[in-house]
Amino acid sequence: MSVIIQPSLFAADMGYLAEELKAIEASGITELHVDVMDGSFVPNIAFGPDQVSMLRPLTKLKFDVHMMVVNPDRYIPRYAEAGAEVITVHAEACVHLHRTLQLIKSLGKQAGVALNPGTPLDVLDYVYDLLDQVLIMTVNPGCGGQKTILGLTEKIKRLSEIKQANQYGFAIQIDGGINKDNINKLIEAGAENIVIGAAAFQRGKTKSTLEEFVALVK
Ligand code: DX5
Ligand code: ZN
Question: Signal peptide span per the entry (predicted)?
Fold first, then answer.
């Protein structure tokens, strides 16, 4: 399975979103990470469903919506309608995780679960059959530009072992502080889909930076 780079739009210059989306596509990348923050689960606010609807016609990139939202069931149908292809919820934010994943699947979307650094893998034990993706947060969520917690490499390795032993089909995604220096160590541990924020976006250089990332993970 080849490694996928997923730029996180939260880190882009909001005044130049259309330009940055073109730069991402020109680099050959096919997926976009869209962070949704409610100011409650995390201390920041980002991308409402109406903004996602406005972005949708600007690009063919696959939208992976990372919902850092308490009780995400309230908003999942709106993001599905807005054009999300993948919807990832936090295990810590769901009272009924299994039901929430059923809701995402019932809307015809791929379903992911994200785990904060302090959350153990065993919360996934009884939902693996519903999962298309597991997101191992490599920082505490809520803002960009933080430093990866490298101790989490063990968690990625353990998840990769569980995946292989059971032949599960979900992708292992990581998010937070990924850069050119640490990316390969995390891929060796088992990461397959890599979200990149601050290290990806610099106006005028986004395309070439992303091309460098793509070359690094080949
Ligand atoms: C963090 C968000 C990330 C963020 C990543 O809470 O979920 O997607 O944009 O940005 P960097 O790569 O700068 O940590
Ligand atoms: Zn994210």
Answer: none
User: What is the whole-number distance in angstroms between the Cα of residue 60 and the centre of ligand 2?
Assistant: 20
pLDDT tens, residue by residue, 179-216: 999 999 999 999 999 999 999 999 899 999 999 999 99
Reading the block at residue 130, the tokens are: 């519903």
CB 210 within 8 A of CB 31: no
Distance of alpha carbon 218 from alpha carbon 19, whole angstroms: 26
Residues by chain with Cβ below 5 Å of ion ligand 2: 35, 66, 175
* pLDDT score at 81: 98
Contact predicate 181/173, CB 8 Å: no
Judge whether 47 and 35 are in contact, CB under 8 Å.
yes
Catalytic sites, residue numbers: 35, 175
145 lines ligand 1 (CB under 6 A): yes
Structural domains present in the chain: 4-216 (3.20.20.70)
**Measured in angstroms, how far is the CA atom of residue 197 from the centroid of ligand 1?**
5
CA angle 88, 153, 168 (to 5 degrees): 50
